[in-house]
């Protein structure tokens, strides 16, 4: 019989948030794969448990090399517990490779549900929670970051991001540029910890605040793109939306079609708006035929 892979959520701040089953799984596991073995030791001390199984490190640097070893242990019948520094494994943390490899070998994969910075930030943000998407960390390079943001500029669902504190001001400024300075957002800092802070406001205001320097673990929640009314989807706005999509790498024909569908207007109206915008700036459109 094959073993079982258990993905265990760990506290994102307050150790009292640890799920009750976590202590039992830590004691029952044959192998514990931990993103940071030192943090695991502090966690087990706080929970007053003593793991009986073998503890190995499993982090970004050795994830590819260690995955086959863990899969072989699972294939041999071992119960392998995977924990990361905080939150659920594989959510912007190590784990995906191991889960995929275990599934391919027919190994049972289960989870001990636990704290999640994504859901916690979403819940306290004060922004719509009925539909959302998680975007992970934005790219570090400015150009790549702008491209990624432009790809989701028209996303109607609430957006959730992780970010490093020293890049927060640049990221918020880029979001204000692409999404608009008045788009509502919330910056959630040090969730469940002693210095927890949730700063809410327009993106431009949050970018100015972050420019003064912010510390701690950061989760950003951004309101989805608004549904435009007929008066909002004027020629200039339609042309701007096409330009945003083109800058993200989309062909003009497809960009025009997508903008027309989102705005609820004929493609010809969007095409005419693009032509007018190009004529106003003195540059001819790249595609001269109407869609």
Automatic annotation (TrEMBL):
Q: Which domain of life is it from?
A: Bacteria
The record ties this protein, via InterPro entries, to: 4pyrrol_Mease, 4pyrrol_Methylase_sf, 4pyrrole_Mease_sub1, 4pyrrole_Mease_sub2, rRNA_ssu_MeTfrase_I
Return the Pfam families for the record.
TP_methylase
The EC number(s) attached to this protein equal 2.1.1.198
Q: Which GO terms describe its molecular function?
A: methyltransferase activity
The top EC class, named as a word, is transferase
Q: Which GO terms describe its biological process?
A: methylation
Which terms are listed as keywords in the entry?
Cytoplasm, Methyltransferase, rRNA processing, S-adenosyl-L-methionine, Transferase
What role is this protein assigned?
Catalyzes the 2'-O-methylation of the ribose of cytidine 1402 (C1402) in 16S rRNA.
From the Swiss-Prot or TrEMBL record, give the protein name. Ribosomal RNA small subunit methyltransferase I
Say which species the protein is native to.
Answer: Streptomyces rugosispiralis
Q: What is the lineage of its organism?
A: Bacteria, Bacillati, Actinomycetota, Actinomycetes, Kitasatosporales
Name the gene behind this protein. Answer: rsmI
């Amino acid at each position: 019989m094959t073993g079982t892979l258990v993905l265990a959520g760990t506290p994102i701040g307050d150790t009292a948030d640890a799920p009750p089953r976590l202590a039992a799984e830590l004691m029952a596991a044959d192998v514990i794969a931990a993103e940071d073995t030192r943090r695991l030791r502090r966690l087990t001390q706080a929970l007053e448990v003593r793991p009986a199984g073998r503890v190995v490190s499993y982090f970004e640097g050795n994830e590819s090399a260690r995955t086959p070893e863990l899969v072989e242990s699972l294939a041999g019948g071992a119960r392998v517990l995977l924990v990361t520094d905080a939150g659920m494994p594989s959510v912007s943390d190590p784990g995906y490779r191991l889960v995929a490899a275990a599934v391919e070998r027919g190994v049972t994969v289960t989870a001990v549900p636990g704290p999640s910075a994504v859901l916690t930030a979403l819940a306290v943000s004060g922004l719509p929670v009925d539909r959302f998407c998680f975007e992970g960390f934005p790219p570090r390079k400015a150009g790549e970051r702008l491209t990624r943001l432009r790809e989701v500029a028209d996303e109607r669902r609430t957006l959730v991001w992780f970010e490093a504190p020293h890049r927060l001001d640049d990221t918020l400024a880029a979001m204000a540029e692409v999404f608009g300075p008045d788009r509502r957002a919330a910056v959630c800092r040090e969730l469940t910890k002693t210095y927890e802070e949730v700063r809410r406001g327009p993106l431009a205001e949050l970018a100015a605040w972050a420019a003064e320097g912010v510390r701690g673990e950061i989760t950003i929640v951004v309101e989805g793109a608004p549904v435009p009314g007929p008066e909002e989807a004027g020629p200039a706005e339609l042309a701007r939306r096409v330009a945003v999509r083109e800058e993200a790498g989309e062909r003009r024909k497809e960009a025009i079609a997508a903008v027309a569908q989102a705005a609820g207007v004929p493609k010809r109206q969007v095409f005419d708006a693009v032509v007018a915008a190009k004529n106003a700036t003195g540059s001819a459109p790249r595609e001269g035929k109407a869609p």
